Amino acid sequence: MEKTELIKTEIKKQMRLGGPLIAANLLLTFLILISIIMVGHLGNPVFAGAALAISFAAVTGFSILLGLGCALETLCGQAFGAKQYHMLGVQLQKAMLVLTLSCIPVAAVWLFADKVLIFLHQDSEISEKAGVYIRWMLPSLFAYGLVQCQIRFLQTQNLVMPLMLGAGSTAVIHGLASWAFVYRTGIGYVGAALATSLSYWYMVVFLAVYIKFSTACKTTWTGFSKEAFRGVYSFIKLALPSAVMIT
């Protein structure tokens, strides 16, 4: 009986932590789905261009940042387990620095996405539309990197409810912004890309405000520190294999 109770307690604990995380990831995935739905009503060439741009962005940018962010999960877990709580904030800053710098070469590739796609023998008209769409998505690239860092920082501390609330409100804002930009401003299909950028930056601000002002992060976020510039190479060595594996 005692063993059964322990199992039940552990299952409840895992559901309490895993449920909000699953919901948060699903809600963030809905951002792409919402964009595709909004653009889908504008015709096949535009739809194909947006879909190609989103796929290109996922392979050349978002998946790389997702992989690089995995290193923070390991380092924050070590610091939290060792009760060096202030180091979680230091590792967060280090990860934000590395991922932001990593966005620069990716952004350069995105700027010439249409030429890259044409070189890969994709349809020229669709490639041109994809190139325009992905350039409007550029701000979301940097925001996505920061969000990945914030998610792992909070996840390590079992602070999952803010992630679910942030993702939920982001999905709502994205839906409204996509509809407004695509159908009300006259900018057409690129409005969905602009809405994506706006939505990811909203989530960055939402989580940053929580981390800054929540008492739950009082010991783990103690402000910006020069320590973040130490051990950057070690972070990169840990992050690169994860990025390669996920990509």
Automatic annotation (TrEMBL):
A Pfam family of this chain: MatE
InterPro entries in the cross-refs: MATE_fam (IPR002528)
Membrane recorded as keyword: yes
This protein's UniProt keywords: Membrane, Transmembrane, Transmembrane helix
TM regions (residue ranges): 21-40, 46-75, 95-113, 133-151, 163-181, 187-211
Molecular-function annotations in GO: antiporter activity; xenobiotic transmembrane transporter activity
Gene Ontology CC: membrane
Family statement: Belongs to the multi antimicrobial extrusion (MATE) (TC 2.A.66.1) family.
Protein name as annotated: MATE efflux family protein DTX1
